[in-house]
Request: fold
Amino acid sequence: MLASFKVLLAPQTVLRFGLASSEFFPVFQLDSYGAIFFLLISLVSVLSALYAVPYLASYQGIYHLQSLNALVATFVLGMQLVIVSQSPMAFMLGWETMSLASFFLVVSDRSHESVKAALLYLVMTHLGAGALFIGFLLLAQGSLFADFEQLASLAASAPLWILSVCFGLFFFGFGSKAGLVPFHVWLPEAHPAAPSHISALMSGIMLKVALYGFLRVLLFILPPIGATASLFILGFGLLSALYGVLYAVVERDFKRTLAFSSIENIGLIFIMVGVAFFAQSQGLEGLYQTALIAAVFFAIAHAIFKSGLFLASGLIVRAVHSRNLEKMGGLARQMPLFSFLFFVLCLAAASLPPFAPFFGEWIFFQSMLQNFSSQNLPVNIILISTFAVTALVGGLAIFAMVKLFAISMLAEPRSEAAREIHEKPRAGELFSVAVLAILALGVGLFAPAVLSLIGANVLVSSPAEITVGSATIQPSFIFWLLLGCLFVVWILRRIFSRAAHERIYHGWDCGQPIDASMEYTATAFSAPIRFFFRLILKTKKTLVAQPVVATNPWIATHTVTVDLRSIWMDYGYVPLGRFIIGMAEQVKKIQSGNIRFYLLLMFLTLILTIWVAL
Amino acid sequence: MAIFIQGIVVLALAPLVTGLVRWFKARLQGRHGAAPWLVYFALLTTLKKENVISESRSWVFRCVPFVVLGIALFLSLALPLVFPSGGIPQVDLFVLAGVLALSSVFLVLGGLDAATAFGGMGASREMTIAALIEPTVLITFAAFASVAGSSSLQDVFGNGITAISHPALLLSFAALVFVVLAENARYPVDNPATHLELTMVHEAMVLEYSGPYLAMLEYASSIKLTVFLLILGNLVGAGIFATVIIGSFALALFESTIAKMRFFRMQEYMSIAFFLALAGLILIFII
Reply:
């Protein structure tokens, strides 16, 4: 079962070190750029497999374990195929394996919502795959078996319009898989619906596979894209980051919050990629390299902390039997160790020092800052606006993560299920979460080393000139100074006051007993942001008044529901779907059942074909 | 060596700054006011009081005072406040922003952990303020860093860059004042002297803390205020004692002349600060 795929994985993890860039088959080859992502996939898969063994034992009645495990193995295999393949056909084979396996994984609990989410996912992912396939075929000029190197030489001589169309197709294909707004609609539905260790794989690494593909095409196949295309990437990145983070702040479903946070993070990564290629088109070589390295570094950090958060979400959801944040609370007292690990992951996800994502953002900010200049005002304005929006997104991301941790873990339990939890985290599950939490800190502390490793592996062209500014970032210094300050404060408190001089008493209650219903909820906590950004965040508020006595309408019980709407669904996808169905209805009219009419149609088609052909 | 002298100076001055602001404010409002050094005794008394801990708290509740005061100590040690030109380690402006956010996060968690409505209210407001002021902080810092050619505060102060010697920085300086008011829970963002549930932000979060923990949190906010006043002082080229006296007087005067803003109008304050900072950054490259 799962153990088998662990074993399958283990030797390959080693291969990355021993035989990096050796050849398995003629079509499969792992180069040093792919190796970074391959290592990431292997790492997260092994950890989630270790997690899954005890985790799935609780869900024997819901999932069909044998098929689930087989599908997980197929899913991971598909992602690895994508990374090691060197030709479009192999790439698409892996891509489809990955997409289809994850489709079945999303439906694995066979509930109505999951099926709905999975079908949406299937449609979106296949539109994307179709776009990729067309893109590859266009570039290869119809040849099915060209490999990436041949594609690159063909692309170098291709006319501009083909390149532009291909860029658009690739952008849509990879962007829809990565969850860029506005192609993101499947993501907040599909990721939460899957079992948690699958969500970790999907959010933590499947999105990175899409990023891998996008960068592979941009760096190794297409010739340098111009300023327009890079601004295109940048614009969509900014939109995704801002939109994703706002919804992450106001969302009340635990796993959906994480899914929206993934959209935000992918947006950030695409911002970095966009800035990198924009800098390349403007001849700012230093910014190009640093932003690209920052993007890959942030992707690694995201894979680590987001997988950790999704694994943690599984344990929380299992403990309270609900994904609703309003039903959680008080869990930190019942599972202190777990809550600490979860806290570390949340701080990492909020990009706070001294965790890994902070350093990704930091070098990105720093290198943008170094390239503000008065020579070229338009470039400057673009960089400054990017800087400003990214900073805003960073601030809101802290809000989202604090909400996630505080509402679920702190204060009094908000429901009976959270008051007495039965299934505490088991050793295997805690181990995986702990490893990811330690990695989130460790990659941060060794950020300079990791950054130069990425630099050497991604930028094959000029690895010598990496100016990451690792001289000015001193993660371990900051970490130890912070820890030292904490220690000094602790000592001083011991000296100046008696630690035992304390009493446990109930909170300030204004004279009447307080209970959990008086606490702030997730909805209340995020209310200011919902109010301040009400132009973007569409909510639907319904107030239902039910009279208690039929004769007197004034005495009534009121129920208020606040629903979050998605502008993309309401104004984009739903009208589009309705339009397509409407068109289909129109087309149905010619299906009259009259055989002479069909003959006429066939005749007309024949004439049309001949006319076109001649 | 310089790092320790600076740490001791800042730590020793911090309660005096809070006391001076209160004293000036009382005088400006026609009250007699308590002596500025009363804060030292108040802190010592609070330190000796019994520590009452809420029943519904977790380990986070106990961490908060240590982390918040620890970060305040970090700020007083790692920023070139007293010795602008040397002896203090290079700390990047972005680290400063991150560490400040970390401190806000811990305060918010402490507010929520006590499971009262007051704590939650303060926490939600503080988190909103901290999240929305973050871009202004980063952009303002970026403006100073652009002028200095380095994002380390050491280089900004060491090169003698002030808002007076570089008039292009005036807008950024104004934005930084907005930041300082928001970060330190002063008017018009928060009222530091109230315990009225409709208006308090910072006080609501620390409501459940008592005894030594309360003393630590109060001391931390004094240190933070002092550190920010010293940063502003360095940016106009004032010495440490001039900064402390003129700064607290200016703050008291400001707080006596304006009213607190309604919380749900905070987006106006934040937008003004944000666009002021943005304009300040762009201005540097235009002129």
Chain B touches chain A through 83 residues (CB under 8 Å).
